[in-house]
C-alpha cells in the first residue's frame, strides 16, 4: 500500500506538539540573517506569525544542506513509520556535519520512534569546510539528543559490515560531484546492501534524485537517478520524486 504523504498523514506542527522541531526551524533563519535579503526575512516572519513552519528557501551558499521543504518531507515520511508500525533502526549515509541528522534525531524524539540511529561518512573536507566525528556529535549535543553510532570510513568498507540487521528508515545523501556513472555505481552498491535489510513499509529517501522534468530543481548529481534506474529495473518498488524546492529528493517504500 502506498501512502499519500501530503494528505493522509499531514499533521500540524505546533509549538505545543513539537517545541524542539519549532526551535530547529527557527534556528535556520536566525543563523543566516546577516546574509539573507531583508525582503525574505520579512516574509518569513509574517509566515511564522500564522504558526506555519513553511519558509522561503535559502540558496545553498548559506550553508544549509537541506531546505525546509525537504525537512517537511522527512517529517511526513518518518511519521508514517509510526502509523504503519514499522520497526527497525535508522541510518543516514552521508551525514556530513550532522545537522540534518540531528533534525532526524529531533523527529525521532517528537514522534516517539524508539530505535537506534547509525551515521556513515568519510568526513574530512567538503563544501569548503572541515568536518569530523566531533562536528557531528556537537550537532546532536546542541539539542541534547542521544548520540548516534558513527562510522568513519569509505562506504565500500563500512556499509557491508556495519549496517544494522533491520532498517525502518534510510537517508542516502552521498553527493559525489564527479563522474555520474561512478556515482551511479555507488548508489547501486548502497541499495544492494540496504534493500535486503529493509522491513516491510520501510522508507528510503534518496537526496539528489530527480526525473529532470522541473527546470527549477538543482540536478547536481544525475548519477543518483541513473543508479536508481538500474537497481529498480527488476524490483516491485519505484522511486517517487518529492517536491523539495530547488533541491532534488525522492523516496521509495519497501513492499
Concise description?
With 255 residues, this protein is of the alpha/beta class.
Topology:
Layout: H1 19-30, H2 38-49, H3 68-83, E1 89-93, H4 99-111, E2 117-121, E3 124-126, E4 129-131, H5 133-141, E5 149-152, H6 155-162, E6 167-172, H7 180-194, E7 198-207, H8 223-231, E8 240-241, E9 249-253
Parallel strand pairs: 1-2, 1-6, 2-5, 6-7
Antiparallel strand pairs: 3-4, 7-9, 8-9
Helix pairs in contact: 3-4, 6-7, 7-8
Specify the structural class.
Answer: alpha/beta
Shape: globular
Number of strands: 9
The CATH architecture classification of the domain at 86-253 is: 3-Layer(aba) Sandwich
CATH class of the domain at 86-253: Alpha Beta
- Order of helix and strand elements from N to C terminus: HHHEHEEEHEHEHEHEE
CATH superfamily assignment of the domain at 86-253?
Vaccinia Virus protein VP39
What is the CATH fold-level name of the domain at 86-253?
Answer: Rossmann fold
Output mean pLDDT.
Answer: 81
> Roughly how many Å apart are the termini?
8 Å
Q: Please, how many helices?
A: 8
Amino acid at each position: 500500500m502506498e501512502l499519500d504523504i501530503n494528505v493522509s498523514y499531514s499533521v500540524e506542527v505546533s509549538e505545543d506538539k513539537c517545541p524542539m522541531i519549532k526551535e530547529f526551524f527557527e534556528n535556520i533563519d536566525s543563523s543566516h540573517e546577516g546574509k539573507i535579503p531583508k525582503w525574505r526575512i520579512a516574509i518569513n516572519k509574517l509566515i511564522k506569525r500564522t504558526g506555519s513552519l513553511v519558509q522561503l528557501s535559502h540558496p545553498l551558499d548559506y550553508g544549509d544542506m537541506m531546505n525546509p521543504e525537504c525537512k517537511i518531507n522527512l517529517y511526513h515520511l518518518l511519521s508514517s513509520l509510526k502509523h504503519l508500525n514499522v520497526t527497525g533502526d535508522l541510518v543516514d549515509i552521508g551525514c556530513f556535519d550532522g545537522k540534518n541528522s540531528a533534525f532526524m534525531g529531533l523527529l525521532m524524539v517528537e514522534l516517539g520512534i524508539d530505535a537506534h540511529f547509525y551515521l556513515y561518512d568519510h568526513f574530512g573536507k567538503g563544501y569548503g569546510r572541515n568536518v569530523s566525528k566531533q562536528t557531528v556529535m556537537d550537532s546532536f549535543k546542541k539539542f541534547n539528543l542521544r548520540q548516534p553510532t558513527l562510522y568513519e570510513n569509505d562506504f565500500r568498507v563500512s556499509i557491508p559490515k556495519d549496517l544494522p540487521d533491520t532498517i525502518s528508515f534510510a537517508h542516502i545523501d552521498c553527493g559525489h560531484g564527479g563522474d555520474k556513472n561512478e556515482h551511479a555505481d555507488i548508489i547501486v552498491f548502497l541499495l544492494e546492501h540496504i534493500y535486503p535489510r529493509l522491513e516491510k513499509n520501510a522508507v528510503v529517501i534518496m537526496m539528489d534524485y530527480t526525473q529532470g522534468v522541473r527546470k527549477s530543481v538543482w540536478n547536481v548529481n544525475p548519477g543518483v537517478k541513473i543508479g536508481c534506474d538500474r537497481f529498480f529495473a527488476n524490483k516491485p518498488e519505484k522511486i517517487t520524486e518529492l517536491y523539495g524546492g530547488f533541491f532534488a529528493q525522492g523516496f521509495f517504500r519497501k513492499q
